[in-house]
TrEMBL record:
Enzyme kind, highest EC tier: oxidoreductase
Keyword Oxidoreductase assigned: yes
Annotated TM spans: none
EC number: 1.18.1.2
GO molecular function: ferredoxin-NADP+ reductase activity
Name of the protein described by the UniProt record: Ferredoxin--NADP+ reductase
Gene3D superfamilies the record matches: Nucleotide-binding domain of ferredoxin-NADP reductase (FNR) module (3.40.50.80), Translation factors (2.40.30.10)
Keywords: Oxidoreductase
Organism from which the protein derives: Bacillus chungangensis
Amino acid sequence: MQIYWTKINKIIEETPEIKTFMLDCPEGFTWEEGAHTHFALEGFNAGDKPNRGLIRHMSISTLPHENSIGITTRIREQCSEFKAILRNLEVGNEIALFKTHSNVPLKREGKNIYLLSSGVGLATFRPLVLDYFESADNVNQIHSLNIDSSKDFLFTNIFKSVPDKKFTSQFVDNRKDYYEEVKKLAADKDGLFYVVGSDEFLVQNIEVLREQGIKPEQIMLDKHEQQRPKFLSHI
């Protein structure tokens, strides 16, 4: 397994609780839209075994041509040891990346695509939308629906409706409105539904989509192939 050590070159405060850490691109490090990586803090591999408390699964919120690896995450006042360390990191600090993979690349099958996310889950979708803006080949249109109860919506400069590009974006701040909208979107029985958020959020969305007649193969999850049945089989 190759570990890429790299440095933070910029820290962007997206909202009061959400930061994006921009990292230098190490030589040989590649990724595609919808990718996630293992993001590790200094000292994670200092002992005989890796310290899992210093490692997190993180989505990459940028595309390769942006020349920086963006890691966007929410850091609340009350947070884990990992997030507490992250909060105090500065430009120039080193972190490690390894095991990078994309479960949710943009499918170009001539269909409507629906991006369903909760809070900072939107970071996974930012590169997909940018990729679509660069080339809409074999994508009919994209609709993004995000729920964030904080009302500090993320990436509003990108997630805004652009009718000319057949892209619509919607933000809601409560579950009732959110699931009503999901039901409306599921009227498209041929669409592709991407879902990103907590495991509980995934299960609830799958339940609603399946009740509306959406098939498992139309639902894309940011999970390894072997994990999909756990979410899709019990509905």
